[in-house]
Amino acid sequence: MRTLLILVSIFLQIHLHFTGSQAEHQRSLSTSNEVSPLKGAEDKGEDVIEGPIREILAQSGSVANLPCKITDPGAGTITWMKRRDRRLLTVGTITHSTDNRFVVMHSSTDWSLQIRAVTLQDAGIYECQITSHPVQRNFVHLKITEAYSIIPGAPDFHVKQGSSLRLECQLKAAAESPLYVFWYRQGHMINYDEEPGVKVELTKNGSILMVNKTKPSHGGNYTCTPSNAKSSYVLVHVIEEEEKPAAMHGGDRRNLSTRIFASNFLVSLLAVVSWRIPSLTSLYPT
Fold it and tell me: Fewest C-beta in 10 Å: which of 58, 79, 184, 214?
């Protein structure tokens, strides 16, 4: 019996030792298989922008100029790239991009990137890099705005016949003045018609159309089309003078005065005659 107990005790010790070794081995494997965080995953050095960012606002369809000031003209090669897609645009004075809208305009201390006919897709951060030691970087944030125009009083504008008409085409969200503003009436351009009494004046923020004495023919749909903004329109209604009653017209008033004068004269004459002629009772007494 004692021998059996000794054998059971030895068996249990061997089993416990084997189980503990397996657990330690599993812990070791688990530790070696843990995924450690990648270096730079939280902070990609290539995406970090160090230094000031200059903001440039340009209108859609216009020309944008992104400045790049340098202190040492012979420091190294100047390149321009777009940060979002890491697209190389220019190297020195040569346009590297297949898009020929990107051109370098340079002087001794300025290597500006010119973007012609900008679109909304051109918005973003651009980097000007000088391959000096250390490397110099300038950043420009290009913002694109779409200008539009309005005509106060639209969509309907009422004016009395014979009075003056003034329509103003105002640019909104514009970054620059328009080169021209064309006015159309019923689809026909009126800027250069030289119509008497009609004048078009270009302003810093739009254009003004003036008509001295409006006629019924001046009514209709007016559209202003700036060179750098969306068009706008207004429908002009010319209110004609109400037709006066026939008795109030000039000729009728004269005829009415003549009739009134004749009637008053007849009444006066009858009064005088009745006063001069004795009554019938005095002529023929009963």
Answer: 184
Per-residue pLDDT of 145-182, as tens digits, reads 999 999 999 999 999 999 999 999 999 999 999 999 99
pLDDT digits (tens, 9 = 90+) for 38-93: 333 333 444 578 789 999 999 999 999 999 988 877 778 999 999 988 899 999 99
Q: CA 236 → CA 81, 160, 165, 209, 270, distances in Å?
A: 51, 10, 9, 12, 61
Provide long-range contacts, Cβ within 8 A and 24+ apart, for 194-197: none
Q: Pairing between strand 111-115 and 136-145?
A: unpaired
- Side-chain-side CA neighbours of 86 within 13 Å: the count stands at 2
Amino acid identity for residue 252 in this structure? D
DSSP assigned state of 183? E
